[in-house]
Specification:
Distance between the termini of chain B: 42 Å
Distance between the termini of chain A: 23 Å
Structural class of chain B: mainly beta
Radius of gyration of chain B: 36 Å
Oligomer: heterodimer
Shape of chain B: flat
Strand order of the largest sheet of chain B: 1-8-9-10-13-12-11
Strand order of the largest sheet of chain A: 8-1-11-12-13-10-9
Number of helices of chain A: 1
Largest sheet of chain A: 7 strands, antiparallel
Number of helices of chain B: 8
């Protein structure tokens, strides 16, 4: 069992990531860190690596990848992969999409994404970081597979159905965390909201241990509501929305 | 079946649209040949190495001045490598780079130190324009934007900025009355966001990458986006991803507007025929006469002549060489009809020497005239006037159209006096500083050539013209449309083109999917419609049928054979002839009891086009004697039409006298892809009389002929055919 996690922290954002190779065109390695599924990095040769030096040892406990089919490894090192080279997690994508692999927390100065074999995939998002885990479970109204079709149905002059057009399937949810510590809301969540959750897309998974495949790439709404309760507790409400897979 | 139609046939489809903008983007790399911008120091290394090299003695003596700059080896050992300088010692000229050179550089290596942190943005215009415009190499950067929520094809840089309802097309509307279709305009509204500056080739070199959001940055660098190509691709998302379900429409960028109050930016796209709205035919010219140009320099009765001279009248110019280069022509009596160029003139004796000998020596009975054969304009103006090639070239001076045979610098000349006073105009005196306006003329050219010329000169190149269809229409319907005319004043190309189309009853439109300018003469159709439309296809409560009674006419006429290319063609007295047809029955009290006239003045038709003019007015009366129908409707994507195609429509909104739905043949005049459905507008194409075509050999008799074969003409000895149907019209 796991509590909800916000996946925005990224070691590749600590410094300029360095790729072993990059295909010609608009496939800059810096595109990996912007959480946008439409800006890509693509290596020109396999095996391929993207390495970053965080300057000091930093924690990480998940790998989140959005890319084409392929095998992706999260690795850590204390000496820039000279002697130390620790495999932290492996994500295997059988089709283009988003993949989350949580792993036991570890701390390294150097972080690397490795694509060990296969043909060179295009990768839009690569995140190796430490998840922000909520202190409580979600309330019952949360539904990870709700969806709403944005589209139109057509009928002919005789009333018979002609067909249906789907623009996309929207997934939206209200994250409601009840009775969380006021200090967590103030000192942990609010800084994260200001630094990232408010203005940039991020990953969200409601149950990383049991259902990592339910990870969503989302953006938050305009408001963060933290109604205070008596004592040192409060509730947290965040609206999030994205595209259903 | 195609991937697209397969996707359309599915009951549920996932729709998406992608906008592609082709913006200018310099192919150079800043500071690398041929670009010479940003070079702070160049020379030959004093000594080489892998991480530290010694620059030339002439490099800066200031410590760290080159830190962050790019050191590029340009020749000698290790040529073609670039590294970022991380330390520079002015006293020694030693530059240390971030990553070792491999292979190492040495004392033979030539180099440039390039200021990449302040490099350009690879654009020519804008707030950071090209720093080496002489060596700018214009390339293209294609930027792609898709509708929000649409799955992005893996590996493609497509930004989901297009709002779901952000595509607002004003479609092309084919028009029988206007000839040239209304130009389409499609607006695509897109959101903005903070985004990494992917369009900055040197983002890694800059001290601080550009800030701001995506669109304002792009607009600042591309103020010249208008006129560049744009493609709107609309289709259906399938798994695995395929572009084959998408249809690509080609446009030009009319404007990039915004950011709006909501920070959105709207790309306004226009069809290529819009180019005709921006150009003029003939091109306006601003050459002026440097000196007076006389209609006739001198005229009178000769006082004598020899084998190569003529003695002009006493009142001729007393100045030596006054008529040199001009033409002496004998008008009447001895030697009449001869034209020779004067090579020398003696003022005292009024004797003109001609360049070649007279065939018949003029004498004291010969009347003559001396006329100029050239004029000159101010320096540099000649470039605006083409040199005559296979086709003659004309200019307008006042009300005279003059043909010139040669252009030499700023001088236009002609071989003899017959080149003056062209296209019905009169020879006249012209003053210094009179405007010399280039003309556009055609001599006995087929209509397809004239139409193609106007499109080309208006900016639409042959790639974007359906020349095959144009030739077919020309062959089928316009063989009598041989055009001889002169356009003596600049006109908007689109208006000129529309004027031509209206005279020959041709429609022309931009087909964004075929990416061609299309043509169709509004004449009886040969063959069957390719699409059948019934209430089963028409979407619920979206069918709007209108009888266009305002377009009905009872008489049609055309004035033609303009007396002069420079006369006012809005005045009927300036046309020599007319053809007119009147439907007296329809004008009568038992019928419509009104008179509705359609009168055109044609500058394109001359007396040689009389038969065509007569046939056209007859057909127009047959076409509009009964009001046509216009039916606007919507269709599910499975029933996609093609703009301009024929469709047989049966709907309970158009019925016969017995109240039964009546089949009417229509042409698709307007088509808009709304993603969820198509908005279409069709118009009936019927003619009041039954037209027939000349049948091929072996055609069956009428009684045995199939319906398809009955498009060919059969002769009846009565008012009806043997099956009771209407007899054919011979016009």
């Amino acid at each position: 069992m796991a509590r909800p996690r916000f996946l925005y922290d990224n070691r590749f954002a600590d410094a300029t990531p360095v790729a072993s190779s990059t295909a010609a065109g608009d496939f800059n390695v810096a595109n990996l860190v912007d959480f946008r599924p439409y800006t890509w990095w693509k290596p020109s040769a396999i095996p391929a690596t993207v390495t970053v030096d965080s300057g000091s040892a930093k924690a990480r406990d998940f790998l989140l990848v959005y890319g084409e089919a392929g095998t992706y490894e999260a690795r850590g090192s204390t000496d820039n992969f000279s002697a130390s080279n620790v495999l932290l997690a492996t994500a295997v994508l059988s089709a283009p999409g988003l993949k989350l692999v949580p792993f036991a927390s570890a701390s390294h100065r150097y972080t690397r994404l490795t694509i060990p074999s296969g043909s060179a995939p295009a990768v839009a998002i690569a995140v190796i970081g430490a998840a922000l885990e909520a202190p409580v479970y979600l309330e019952g109204e949360f539904n990870p597979i709700d969806r709403r079709v944005m589209g139109q149905s057509n009928r002919n002059e005789n009333g018979w159905p002609l067909g249906r057009i789907v623009y996309f399937e929207e997934w939206s949810a209200r994250i409601f965390l009840q009775n969380v510590a006021w200090s967590w809301a103030r000192d942990t969540l609010t800084p994260a909201w200001k630094a990232h959750l408010r203005g940039s897309p991020f990953g969200f998974v409601w149950e990383a241990d049991l259902y990592p495949e339910d990870v969503r790439l989302v953006s938050s709404g305009e408001s963060l509501r933290i109604p205070h309760r008596a004592g040192s507790l409060c509730d947290v409400e965040i609206e999030i929305e994205g595209v259903a897979p | 079946m195609s991937a697209r139609s397969d996707a359309q046939k599915a009951h549920e489809r996932s729709w998406g649209a992608v906008l592609e903008l082709d913006l200018d983007y310099c192919d150079n790399t800043y500071g690398v040949d041929p670009c010479t911008a940003g070079r702070l120091n160049s020379g030959t290394l004093q000594s080489g190495g892998t991480t530290t090299v010694r620059l030339a003695a002439g490099a800066s003596a200031v410590d760290d001045v080159y830190n962050g700059m790019t050191l590029r080896s340009t020749g000698g050992t290790g040529s073609g490598q670039e590294r970022k300088v991380i330390d520079y010692v002015g006293a020694t000229r030693d530059a240390t780079v971030s990553v070792a050179f491999s292979p190492a550089l040495d004392g033979t290596t030539t180099y440039n130190v390039i200021d990449r942190p302040n490099g350009c943005y690879n654009v020519f215009e804008g707030d950071s324009p090209c720093q080496d415009p002489d060596n700018y190499v214009k390339g293209v950067k294609t930027l792609k934007f898709c509708t929000r929520g649409m799955p992005i094809p893996p590996g493609e840089q497509v930004r989901p900025y297009v709002l779901t309802n952000g595509i607002s097309p004003t479609a092309t509307e084919i028009s029988t009355a206007k000839g040239l279709a209304a130009r389409s305009q499609t607006s695509v509204e897109m959101v903005d966001e903070p985004a990494r500056d992917d369009l900055d080739k040197y983002i890694e070199d800059r001290v601080t990458p550009a800030g701001g959001t995506y669109w304002p940055r792009l607009l600042a660098r591309n103020p010249n986006a208008a006129g560049r190509p744009a493609r709107l691709r609309q289709g259906y998302v399938v798994t695995p991803w395929s572009w084959d379900t998408f249809q690509t429409e080609l446009y030009i960028i009319e404007a990039l507007r915004g950011p709006s109050k909501q920070s959105t930016v709207t790309a306004v796209l226009a069809d290529l025929v819009k180019l005709l709205d921006r150009t003029m035919i003939p091109a306006p010219t601003d050459g002026k006469l440097l000196a007076d140009l006389a209609a006739v320099s001198d005229t009178g009765t000769a006082r004598g002549g020899t084998l190569n001279t003529i003695v002009l009248r006493e009142k001729a110019s007393p100045e030596d060489d006054a008529y040199n280069g001009q033409e002496a022509s004998i008008l009447e009596n001895t030697g009449a009809g001869q034209r020779l160029v004067i090579s020398d003139y003696e003022g005292a004796t009024r004797t003109a020497t001609v360049a070649v000998n007279w065939q018949v020596i003029p004498d004291t009975t010969s009347t003559y005239e001396v006329t100029p054969l050239e004029f000159e304009m101010a320096s540099g103006k000649g470039a605006q006037y083409p040199s005559p090639g296979a086709e003659p070239e004309y200019v307008r001076l006042g009300d005279e159209v003059l043909r010139y045979g040669t252009k030499t610098g700023d001088k236009l000349s002609w071989p003899d006096g017959s080149f003056r006073a062209q296209f019905g105009t009169a020879r006249a005196d012209h003053k210094a500083k009179d405007i010399v306006q280039l003309c556009r003329a055609w001599h006995d050219k087929p209509l397809k050539t004239v139409a193609q010329n106007i499109l080309n000169e208006g900016g639409v190149v042959d790639t974007y013209i359906d020349l095959t269809q144009l030739a077919k229409e020309d062959t089928d319907w316009l063989s009598l449309a041989r055009i001889t005319t002169c356009i003596a004043d600049p006109e908007k190309s689109s208006e000129l083109y529309a004027d031509l189309l209206k005279d020959v009853m041709m429609m022309s439109w931009w087909h964004p999917v075929e990416q061609k300018t299309k043509f169709k003469v509004d004449m009886p159709e040969l063959g069957a419609a390719s699409f059948s439309l019934t209430d089963h296809q028409l979407m619920l409560r979206e069918t709007d049928a209108q009888r266009l009674d305002e377009e009905r006419i009872t008489r049609a006429a055309v004035d033609f054979d303009l007396v002069s290319a420079t006369e006012d063609r809005k005045k009927r007295q300036n046309f020599r002839t007319i053809e007119m047809f009147i439907d007296a029955v329809r004008e009568g009290p038992n019928s419509f009891n009104d008179v509705r006239q359609d009168l055109r003045q044609s500058r394109w038709f001359t007396a040689a086009n009389e038969i065509l003019a007569k046939a056209n007015v007859a057909r127009k009366l047959r076409r509009l004697g009964v009001a046509p129908w216009r039916v606007a409707h919507q269709l599910d994507p499975r029933d996609e039409l093609v703009l301009g195609q024929l469709a047989d429509l049966t709907t309970r909104k158009i019925v016969d006298a017995a109240g039964q739905p009546k089949l009417v043949r229509c042409r698709v005049m307007k088509l808009v892809d709304r993603g969820s459905h198509f908005e279409a507008q069709v118009r009936t194409t019927g003619f009041e009389k039954r037209y027939g075509f000349i049948a091929p050999n072996g055609q069956a008799n009428f009684s045995a002929a199939s319906d398809a074969e009955k498009v060919y003409a059969y002769i009846s000895n009565g008012a009806t055919m043997s099956d009771g149907s209407s007899a054919y019209l011979i016009s």
